[in-house]
Design goal:
Helix content is 44%, strand content 13%. The protein contains 16 helices and twelve strands. It starts with a helix and ends with a strand. The mean pLDDT is 96.
Length: 384
Amino acid sequence: MLKKLKNCHNTDDFRMLAKQNLPSPVFHYIDGAADDEVTYARNTASFDQCDLIPNVLKPVNDVDISIEILGKKIDLPIFLSPTALQRLFHYEGERAVGEAAEDFNTYFGISSLATVGIEEVGKKFSCPKMFQLYVHKDKALNQDMLQKCIDNDFDALAITVDTIVGGNRERDLRTGFTSPPKLTIASLMSFILSPMWSFNYLFRDKFSLPQLDSHLSEGTKIAISVGDYFTNMLDQELSWKKIEEIRKIWPKPLCLKGVMSVDDAKKAIDVGATAIMLSNHGGRQLDGARSPFDQLDEIVNAVGGQIEIICDGGIRRGTHVLKALSLGANACSGGRFYLYSLAGAGSIGVKRAIGLMRDEIIRDMKLMGCNSISDLSKANIRFR
């Protein structure tokens, strides 16, 4: 495993390692997206539509890539976006991701559908912590999760606003992926061909979704696809008024994840949000939606300086981060870039992935002639 990990130098390498380790349904849950996956592909391809313009002959011995976002100073301009079901990808799950975030002093988030509890994360990790709130129809569940985050000193709340119904994730339909995994004739061989994953799933800590356990059976005791879960369990009447109600309860920085239009960005300011996360849920919801990077300039021109702007989606390289920051993003975040490494090698995999991303950013900053993130601006980027 260590030899394979040593040969992973970028996100594509980690993706291939994850594919080797995971049963087919689990891999395609991470790797797949909605419909024809056009938006998913565009999320990364959009960064190729512009070029960086370096400045030379500038001393760059000491490069500072730290930023302040959501009330915290972090040592990287990219953080680990909250994602669900992580112990399905590797038995260490969120514990491995939190350990890596601690080492690199960056934000990491856990989901309402996390496989470890809010209390454990609050006690175990001192790095900045974000909770991703899926607003459920069950009001008691929403209140319970919010109160636990307050009691356990989470630093920021990200409300996901683009999942009132589940996207059409056809790979999941073909493989039969559910939470918890359901053994079928179609999936049996892939579980047999992934013996280490199967051993860990069967004999290590039992799979659970602690935030949901005392409120819902779906997702833990009753197998259900993520798309069906979103459609049946989440609040389809989620509105700006409800965001305002949550804002009154939540005392710390608040981020709205999934904002893409200028009108919604302005409304986010009106309801008291600290930040917006430009995101299309990794292309897993509305196929044909605009990519975050394609939309970034328009959003920055409209609300930049009035609210923090986080570019989430498609980031695979340090140059992607620099391009987003040059256009005016305050920070970047991503999911798959660390999930592949988690699935491939657990904690050491996530640490290697983040370390490589950090090294790329520092090297690229030096090649750009920049000593700090504040040196980046629209002056050093051109669209083709």
